[in-house]
Amino acid sequence: MTETYVEKFRDVHQLAHAELYTPVLEKSVEFFTEILGMTVVHEENGSVYLRAYEDTYKYSLILTPHHEAGMKHTAFRTYSPQALERRVEALEAAGVKGEWIEESYGHGRAYQFDDLDGHRLELFFEVERYEAPAHLSSKLRNRPQRRPLRGVPVRRIDHINFLTNEAKVPANAEFYVDQLGFNIREGVKKPDGDFFATWLSVSPLVHEVALMGDGLNGSGRLHHLAYWYGMPQHLDDLSDLCKEYGIEIEAGPLKHGVSQALCMYIIEPGGNRIELFGDSGYLILDPDKPTVEWPAEDTELAIIWYGGKLPETYFRHGTPAIKDETDELNIYFEPGENQIHEAKGN
Amino acid sequence: MTETYVEKFRDVHQLAHAELYTPVLEKSVEFFTEILGMTVVHEENGSVYLRAYEDTYKYSLILTPHHEAGMKHTAFRTYSPQALERRVEALEAAGVKGEWIEESYGHGRAYQFDDLDGHRLELFFEVERYEAPAHLSSKLRNRPQRRPLRGVPVRRIDHINFLTNEAKVPANAEFYVDQLGFNIREGVKKPDGDFFATWLSVSPLVHEVALMGDGLNGSGRLHHLAYWYGMPQHLDDLSDLCKEYGIEIEAGPLKHGVSQALCMYIIEPGGNRIELFGDSGYLILDPDKPTVEWPAEDTELAIIWYGGKLPETYFRHGTPAIKDETDELNIYFEPGENQIHEAKGN
Amino acid sequence: MTETYVEKFRDVHQLAHAELYTPVLEKSVEFFTEILGMTVVHEENGSVYLRAYEDTYKYSLILTPHHEAGMKHTAFRTYSPQALERRVEALEAAGVKGEWIEESYGHGRAYQFDDLDGHRLELFFEVERYEAPAHLSSKLRNRPQRRPLRGVPVRRIDHINFLTNEAKVPANAEFYVDQLGFNIREGVKKPDGDFFATWLSVSPLVHEVALMGDGLNGSGRLHHLAYWYGMPQHLDDLSDLCKEYGIEIEAGPLKHGVSQALCMYIIEPGGNRIELFGDSGYLILDPDKPTVEWPAEDTELAIIWYGGKLPETYFRHGTPAIKDETDELNIYFEPGENQIHEAKGN
Amino acid sequence: MTETYVEKFRDVHQLAHAELYTPVLEKSVEFFTEILGMTVVHEENGSVYLRAYEDTYKYSLILTPHHEAGMKHTAFRTYSPQALERRVEALEAAGVKGEWIEESYGHGRAYQFDDLDGHRLELFFEVERYEAPAHLSSKLRNRPQRRPLRGVPVRRIDHINFLTNEAKVPANAEFYVDQLGFNIREGVKKPDGDFFATWLSVSPLVHEVALMGDGLNGSGRLHHLAYWYGMPQHLDDLSDLCKEYGIEIEAGPLKHGVSQALCMYIIEPGGNRIELFGDSGYLILDPDKPTVEWPAEDTELAIIWYGGKLPETYFRHGTPAIKDETDELNIYFEPGENQIHEAKGN
């Protein structure tokens, strides 16, 4: 065994932040601050930078005004400066065309490029950690920021799910494996044996990235961005607030089969789907755990272990939305109305 | 059995509100609104009236400025107007001297009198139910007020615990039984066989009132006022906020033996002890359930089933505080410093 | 107000037990003992008597073999022996034909009669409380039996829901109010303004009895019997076990609008629907709280505040099942297969 | 920055199992199976091999009969066969004397050696994953074994805490860093600035190993072995069972400052301290996060963020126990009596 064992490289280390587009910036900011308890740390060129209170770096979310919702870019931090160089060399050797961004708020030079379905990715190493001002400083020395008093505050960014043109899911998953060092932790297969959806990670989390077939045949769309609570009750608390304040709950709380995560999906006022994780699911500490494969007939079980059924929207709604008048089943969300503003502070 | 069975009267029906003194009104209000998520509904003669979001009536707490903390009066609602008349007649026939209060904010005429240890009690029937203004109205038709966005919001008043001169505990418990129709649900005995503490109720709750021996030999003092969450996690959430914002946690989260309630004790900035209930313990639906008696040797188990030990302060601190320089073990709380104000809104 | 106020009688005090039919007795017993952690206390004439570990009396469930599932009788305990006499007199004066049962295991003489839709009810007062044998005795003096080590053990019986011929729901609800002293706590209306479903109680629980329109136009059927946990996590634990061991989860965990209860529905191997309560919802301590009425357009919200959608089966499946080949939408459950037996003890 | 950045090696990958001594093998097995829901998978030379239902490999715990409790050896799995070779070479180059074990149940050849305080460690790479027999197979494809029906079943091994001669804590921590590639995630300092306790990990978990000063000046002792639930309620459920069945709870449930873990400590019948984790605390996904240092004056906060105080025993009891008649404060545990056996199966 020893002679032939190939050690995998481990250069990409964690999901760092995502930049989302929103057509209703003010309402989106209100949602992320009042309901999810996030904190605004910076504004620049019209974009608003936000953090969850246990995010290590300055921010994990950038909200950027745009005529429609969607994901502008998603950033990963590498293990080291050398790891960053190695990945960029490998990407370029593989013919991927990217570009260096020299200056960004909160982190050093970064390399941006697209995955095979057109999702914009970014790699960087140098980063600024968050230093809380005195009035936001926690007494807990391993907590970068005092727990906020508003809403049901999320703790940290968890993962992102990219709708991927269905035909490209298997190749795109291989791209993350070969170019970025991800592991395919779990996958749901179509009757033809190809993956319809895959969950990939570079850490013991079951995924930092999921690639899921786009039911509307789109490309480069966002399925959802996920934040982490780690406490089951917080999903109930959040559900209660969402119902009270007019935030759309698409599904959950429910327990996924894949990842075993207790979760729920809501639509933020800009139209992007946000997932919340209410526990840790399971962690993969085993260095060479084989991919868990769910055959087509187990799809339902893979998606939901218990807690109801997923609505049609789940496999079709992504951002930017595709509005197709000829397709009766096409369901998409208009940016919603909520009642946070009027009730705030009372 | 049938011939001799005496049906008990059931005239007093529920705990309605408590009026607490505080030497630091503004800080106390800040605590109850920002940390416990309560809502101010009225101010009158310097007093502030607050409600939990699932309290049925207009308010359940009145905070009144005073040079020291304590309980000014505690009110119960009767089952009917007739029940009110019956109780007052019986009290007066028993030689209890009380007085009618004709006008009070939010309820009709009320009869005030003292229990045997000097705690001021009030009975009334006519009451105004809370009607939420539009911006605080819940979509849930059985919820009187929208769930607040601030802190870890309490749902309703639960019970009150009166420190009682130790020698008077048994007689005072009988006063609640004979004059007000309470049932002694549980009791902890001293080695001599008398009750050191009793838990009494008129409803399936294990107690609306507890009478507990005063370790400093005081009279008429408040041990604590309790609010209800019904969700275990909320005690963890509240603990986290209390530690972050400088609110004193005296004990818990822990599980009582008596009542089986998951609970915690904190000291509000004015010095009064506030208990929070994180589940429902058990309910007594059985109409003639015998008193559960805990012998002296089970005192520790009766107080804490699991979750640590109670500190010395638990049996000594009450409000108003008794400061006794000659007693080294005498522990009392100064109104505390907290950091809610500076962090609020951030 | 005082002059005209009519005091309501309060003679019926609590739900005591239910007797369910099952076509697969052994499998049903296995489910209630291994998955719900109940204890068998008695067997008589082929019936098996079971208790939850915090039930006060000897048992709360009787399983009786029969060719099909269903509810044989449901028993309530009265407040006193006098209350029992008063109710029987009133029922007979109202022309209800009932009969006295002189001997029953675990309780005294009982009066049995039908509600207006043919559900068999029973009233009694004298009862035997459970006395645990030494090896099942709890160290907690207010807990009648040691918490079991098997499954996710339920704590006590909570309520029962009777499918009622839709046209009879309003009149049957009035029967419970007028003859038995129940209060209509909540009701969901049809577009014509009549109640489609009502929730009734004699205690602060929102309901001991619910009456819900039978979607298959049956009479006298059981919708479900409910047991109580009081801890949200236990519904997740139970869901996990049900999925692992082949027990059908029909819906949930979810949060009802009506009653605000966190709950789930499963189908026991005999075909009866069992509900589990994961918290206390809210309690009605207010003696004269008006009925909460949900208009027809709020039906969905009334049934589910959050946590998914109810399946078609919810409004049609009851026991005994009605199998109607002409109705495509008619969904009913065959007694299920589970895998408890083979895995037990491993 | 890039030029001088040294990439750390990552050869040791996860905690795999621990072997504990027990003087009461049968009672210890009963505790781990009936209360913690573990499964016996193998017996060999008098030792019993057990697994938690989500452990990836065949077992995570070996119980070995001995005249006193303690830890016989603790095993870590390396990232690859090459990583195993590299670590052994480095250890031998550093003068550490170890030995190869050619055959072990469930894993390949292993290298055993001592840390600087005499705790026996083991490294291996080749391993057998658990394959459940049909009756223990889960419907969840990412769960190696069906969730058991007994007790409150633990999910996987989490970490181990070694009492370390107080003077050797800093040097021993450096040994784990230099020889095994651990990171010091958190540390509590003494007034002199040296670490009194350190928490170290090779994964995003805050620790797989903790080194804590031995309050009785011992060497090579075990403080505790920890298993993981990931659900806060399970600690309450376990507490309830422990109290009912005579298992000693030393402390908790409580929330650590260090690691932010919700936890509790119990003493298994053999005398070894077992910790249970009820959530995930926080994860360290950041590749170069600096050590969180707690100054001496924050020791209490570091140990307990909320949930009571640690007893004296916490800093003194380890296994094997040191019984010192001259030291009044010396507290140690005799193997306890429990009542699992008599109640089992009822």
Automatic annotation (TrEMBL), chains A, B, C, D:
<dbReference type="Pfam" id="PF00903">
    <property type="entry name" value="Glyoxalase"/>
</dbReference>
<dbReference type="InterPro" id="IPR029068">
    <property type="entry name" value="Glyas_Bleomycin-R_OHBP_Dase"/>
</dbReference>
<dbReference type="InterPro" id="IPR051332">
    <property type="entry name" value="Fosfomycin_Res_Enzymes"/>
</dbReference>
<protein>
    <submittedName>
        <fullName>Catechol 2,3-dioxygenase</fullName>
    </submittedName>
</protein>
<keyword id="KW-0223">Dioxygenase</keyword>
<dbReference type="InterPro" id="IPR037523">
    <property type="entry name" value="VOC_core"/>
</dbReference>
<dbReference type="InterPro" id="IPR004360">
    <property type="entry name" value="Glyas_Fos-R_dOase_dom"/>
</dbReference>
<feature type="domain" description="VOC">
    <location>
        <begin position="14"/>
        <end position="126"/>
    </location>
</feature>
<dbReference type="GO" id="GO:0046872">
    <property type="term" value="F:metal ion binding"/>
</dbReference>
<keyword id="KW-0560">Oxidoreductase</keyword>
<feature type="domain" description="VOC">
    <location>
        <begin position="156"/>
        <end position="279"/>
    </location>
</feature>
<dbReference type="GO" id="GO:0051213">
    <property type="term" value="F:dioxygenase activity"/>
</dbReference>
<keyword id="KW-0479">Metal-binding</keyword>
